[in-house]
Amino acid sequence: MTPEIIDTPKIQAEDDAIALLDQAKRLVIVTNADRDLAEINIQSAKALEDKIFAYLDPPRAKAYSDYQYHKKRLDDAIIPVQSARKAFKQACMAWDQAQEHIRIEAQRKAEAEARRQAEEAALAAAVQAEAEGDATAADAIINEPIEVAPVIVPKTAPAASRLSAGRTVWYAEVTSLTDLCKAIAEGRQPVTLIEANMPTLNKMASALKSTMNIPGVIAKSKTV
Fold this sequence. Notes:
The protein is mainly alpha-helical. It has a domain at 177-209. It is built from five helices and no strands. The protein has helices spanning 12-25, 32-131, 135-143, 177-185, 198-208. The chain starts with 11 loop residues before the first helix and ends in a 16-residue tail after the last helix.
């Protein structure tokens, strides 16, 4: 059965929340009385927070359950189709690449054969000229660069569609972090190419506190 999503009417507490936030933004503590009032408002805000949460979280949880239900239905139906399409595409790409390698190799062999025949023809012509007593012509033939017309072996694989054609994706691979850091330190590359490992640094700061000693890094604290 498809879950039914029911809207929740707006309650006064939602408007009270906006008013309370506006009051908090305008708050300026200049006396102990102001500080006491702020403390009272903190308690009021917590009570209002609990009230809103108790009213609006159950429908949120239900809405999330509905979302999970429909997401599972979608996944169960669409993932097998997407997987099948991916498998078909990979098979087509593998075939196309294999055929292209075959075509390139055939073209290379054809070009090599064409050059071999051209060289043999040039040598035969030079021998003929030499036999006829024309050494100058023979030398000219031997020294003349051999030019062979490009050999094009046509593709045999069917043309790929937009869905079956692969796409070229360029990506970076760091082969030496030390060399990269050295280039940045020397000013040959911008410092934006790297970033500090903040999770690790924060853990170190939490453990070492004021004794943390790392060049370019300081340990700071704040009350939240």
